[in-house]
Amino acid sequence: MIFQSFYANSFYLFGILAQTNCKMNTNRPRRNRKSAAIRDMVAETALTVNDLIYPLFITEKENEQTAIPSLPNICRLGKNDLLREVETALQLGIHTFVLFPAVEESKKDRFATYSYASDNFYLNYARSLKEAFPQIVLMSDVAMDPYSSDGHDGLVENGEILNDQTLPILAKMSLAQAQAGYDILGPSDMMDGRVGYIRQALDKEGYTDVSIMSYTAKYASAFYGPFRDALESAPKSGDKKTYQMNPANKRDALIEAELDAAEGADFLMVKPALAYLDIIHLLKEKTNLPITAYNVSGEYAMIHAAAQKGWLDYDSVMMETLLSIKRAGADAILTYFAKDCAAILK
Ligand code: PBG
Fold this sequence. Notes:
There is one protein chain. By secondary structure, the chain is an alpha/beta fold. It has a single domain, classed as TIM Barrel, CATH 3.20.20. Helix content is 42%, strand content 15%. The radius of gyration is 24 Å and the shape is globular. It starts with a helix and ends with a helix. Ligand PBG is lined by residues 141, 143, 145, 153, 188-189, 224, 227-228, 240, 296-297.
């Protein structure tokens, strides 16, 4: 009885194998990979220089390129170096830039008042850049942290980050940036209702053409470490978990996306990118605004560190990383790799 069923089973198995064999002979996916030309022809995703947004750190100190140890090849740039860097990037075909200010500790206060001061270098540099290169797209960062003595994105009181009291400060900062010539404002603070609040403030003053790229799904991530080194902007106490999103959550991203779209955002951003490819994909599928991804400082630092050790090939891993972010659904990518990537694409 047992013997019989053994035979019966093995005949059955053989039948299946024979069938799959036969199928394997007609369907050979490898045919579409047999040459570079065919692989390119059937490629579903292509990275182009138009996808790239180049983040730049700026400092008030003129003619002093300050290196950032945890961000290899990235420097804090004074005005002249910034102008030169943008010119170099333009020659590589990059035309969109986002600026982040490294502000002296003495200029920081609880209310981030320097963020909208008329002599603020963040605003002056933008004016100079737009004057020198009117064709560029210039994006800002809207959040209190680079200007805040507490190092938080919102106003701190008794250890709490106040939401509604932060909004007018963000609106003042946004208006100052719009006046200075920034084309796209990037609220990265994660306060509730800030996109709508900023949109209304802009429209009231006639800045209806200034865009908002909202940091929609910004996670409370450890991958921002090198960025905080660059700006010396780490929180003086506590962490950002009461406003930035919990890495465990996906549906939260949909709630944020719905709100941002309703409040008037022009682009939705997911940040970080690599550990959150599923979120990029989700927003691309479920929403209709362009999706940008922020390939953050820690993601950049990791690849550099491994490449320095000779453990990974820098160019290949960088290109594969950026392509995967695009494949997940990003329409544009903010990345410290922008120049290196553009050079390879060229
Ligand atoms: C701050 C801001 C951060 C980044 C962009 N804007 C850091 C933070 O939230 O602490 C991180 C970008 C990066 O890591 O490259 N509003």
